[in-house]
Every structure is written in C-alpha cells, then in structure tokens.
Write a structure and sequence with these properties.
Layout: H1 9-16, H2 20-32, E1 52-60, H3 68-76, E2 81-84, E3 91-97, H4 100-111, E4 116-123
Antiparallel strand pairs: 1-3, 1-4, 2-3
Length: about 140
C-alpha cells in the first residue's frame, strides 16, 4: 500500500493470500490505531500556480510556555508543514506559494509573532520524490 495507494483490497488480498474482507478489516484496524492515514491525491503544485517552495527556519526569542510559539505559527495558516526541531533552529516550516510577494507576506506574518526572534529562508530549486518507507516483514531486519 505504501508504494501504490490505488491497489484494490482484492489485489492486496491476492498478493498476500488473504480474502478482501480480511484485508479491509486489517486496513480498518490500522486506520483506527493511527498507523495508516486516509490517502490523498498528489497535486502537481506548479500546475496550479504554486511555483515557489521555501523552507523557513524560525528561532524563538526565549522559551515560551509549551506549545505557545508552535500554536501561534500554526494559527497563521501560512505553511503546509510545521515542525519543532532540535539544534540551532526551533521550528521548520514548508511554505508553498504562487510568487515572491506572497512569500514576503507570509514571512512578514511569521516575523510578527511575538516570540519569534529570527527567520531564515531557503528556496527550493528542484525537488524529487522520496522513497516510500520500507517496513520490514516479520523476521527481517530494517533496511540500512
């Protein structure tokens, strides 16, 4: 499923030698446990006018109440991804936008958050798809 989300339950069952109903029951259980997430369409961002991708590193001015800065950044709604980090930077945001003016507007909003001390931006020049996570089968070791 990680490699091709379009596979039918019947095809997965055929490959695993399971009945489609057994596959459905396992998928449902994994979804309820949070192991699997509902799938979504992969969108070509350039085709819909979102040609700029930037990674924004954010530093806090001082440690705040747990979650205060990340909540404030999340509420801005300017990023497609938001991560708390270890190391020199406190947060990493992925921003996808249509032009430089839109990016500047989003950076201004980030910089206006009270607890933000600094913002560093890296523009993406080229992207390639990553590899799906390889989950080892029972009795196998994880890939290196």
């Amino acid at each position: 499923m990680a490699e091709d989300v379009t596979l039918s339950r019947a095809e997965i069952g055929r490959r695993l030698k399971l009945a489609p109903s057994a596959v459905s029951a396992r998928v449902k259980a994994l979804t309820e446990r949070g192991v699997l997430r509902p799938s979504s369409a992969s969108i070509d961002l350039g085709a819909v006018g979102l040609s700029i991708v930037a990674f924004v590193f954010v530093d806090e001015s001082k440690p705040t109440a747990p979650g205060k800065t990340i909540d404030a950044l999340s509420e801005l709604g300017v990023a497609t991804e938001l991560h708390r980090l270890t190391g020199d930077d406190c947060f990493l945001l992925k921003i996808v936008c249509n032009d430089v003016d839109d990016l500047r507007r989003r950076l201004d909003l980030i910089g206006a958050v009270d607890s933000v001390a600094g913002v560093r931006t890296q523009l993406v020049l080229e992207s390639r798809p990553g590899s799906p996570i390889q989950i080892p089968q029972v009795g196998e070791s994880a890939p290196s």
